[in-house]
């Protein structure tokens, strides 16, 4: 679902350019302790179609630069939200691609997709101010998901969800220091349940762009996520960290 069509389907279901659960409620929850200041610089890592960057910018959190490996999504974001900066690139190349130091670096449901999360964290540290905040909003493997993961076209649907077991040590080894974790599994369950209701309501629209196979895939993957959450294997987590002193 990280293809452009995949994200297009998600944005139809979610009424906005979002490919994370909870849409604007999730952004408000993640940013509730982050001061609003238009002079601050934010980096949206794995920004997709740019909806989150636009929301944060227009609600006064600061200027946002978005980076994503998917060229089609970035071209869409550049066209749709010209007041912001979006660039094509792999997170691991951020220090070479971006000549700025950021106040806030955030990731909405993109960290789980990174092939090498440790290299990604090291790269992000290099573009963080000493006073920066790192925010990771993502899936949490609560213990059983890794044993029976879902598969999309022979690859794991969620390749690397967060795990509380190694989180702190992985952050420390990449020069970050864990500030807090907030378990949002209850919210994930509610959001995915609402999501499945919307899939049902927007069935025709989804079939128009993705066909019967497309809607069946959405039902299988996201219905499966909801089952995994209800079964206690999967959840959601907000991680807050700062540069290691
Ligand atoms: C589920 S989407 C989330 C998009 C966006 N954050 C949102 O909430 O709408 C995950 C995004 O991560 C991007 N991504 C995956 N691996 C990446 C990488 N190595 N570097 C940059 N972006 C990546 C994908 O292209 C995709 O747009």
Please provide a written account of the structure.
With 245 residues, the protein is α/β, with parallel strands linked by helices. It is built from 9 helices and 9 strands. It has a single domain, classed as 3-Layer(aba) Sandwich (Rossmann fold). It has helices at residues 4-14, 23-30, 51-58, 71-80, 94-97, 117-126, 167-173, 185-201, 203-230; strands at 41-45, 63-68, 85-88, 102-108, 128-141, 151-152, 155-156, 176-183, 234-243. The strands form 2 sheets. Strands 3-2-1-4-5-9-8 form a 7-stranded mixed β-sheet, sandwiched between helices. Strands 6-7 form a two-stranded antiparallel sheet. The longest helix has 28 residues, at 203-230. 41% of the residues are buried. The model has no long low-confidence stretch (mean pLDDT 95). The site of S-adenosylmethionine (SAM) has 21 residues, from helix 3 and strand 2. GO terms for molecular function: S-adenosylmethionine-dependent methyltransferase activity. This is Methyltransferase type 11 domain-containing protein.
Present the secondary structure layout.
Blueprint: H1 4-14, H2 23-30, E1 41-45, H3 51-58, E2 63-68, H4 71-80, E3 85-88, H5 94-97, E4 102-108, H6 117-126, E5 128-141, E6 151-152, E7 155-156, H7 167-173, E8 176-183, H8 185-201, H9 203-230, E9 234-243
Helix pairs in contact: 1-9, 8-9
The chain binds S-adenosylmethionine.
């Amino acid at each position: 679902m990280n293809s452009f069509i995949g994200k297009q389907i998600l944005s139809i279901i979610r009424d906005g350019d979002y490919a994370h659960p909870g849409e604007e409620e999730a952004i408000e929850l993640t940013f509730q302790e982050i001061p609003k200041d238009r002079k601050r610089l934010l980096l949206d890592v794995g920004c997709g179609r740019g909806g989150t960057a636009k929301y944060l910018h227009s609600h006064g959190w600061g200027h946002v630069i978005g980076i994503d490996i998917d060229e089609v999504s970035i071209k869409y974001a550049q066209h749709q939200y010209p007041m912001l900066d979006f660039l094509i690139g792999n997170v691991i190349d951020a220090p070479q691609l971006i000549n700025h130091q950021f106040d806030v670096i955030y990731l909405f449901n993109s960290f789980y997709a990174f092939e090498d999360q440790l290299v990604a964290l090291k790269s992000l540290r290099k573009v963080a101010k000493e006073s920066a905040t790192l925010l990771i909003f993502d899936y949490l493997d609560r213990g059983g998901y890794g044993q029976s993961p879902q598969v999309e076209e022979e690859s794991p649907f969620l390749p690397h969800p967060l795990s509380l077991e190694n989180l702190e040590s992985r952050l420390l080894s990449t020069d970050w220091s864990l500030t807090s974790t907030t378990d949002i599994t209850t919210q994930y369950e509610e959001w995915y349940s609402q999501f499945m209701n919307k899939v049902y309501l927007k069935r025709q629209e989804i079939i128009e762009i993705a066909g019967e196979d497309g809607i069946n895939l959405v039902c299988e993957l996201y219905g499966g996520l909801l089952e995994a959450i209800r079964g206690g294997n999967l959840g959601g987590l907000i991680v807050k960290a700062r540069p290691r002193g």
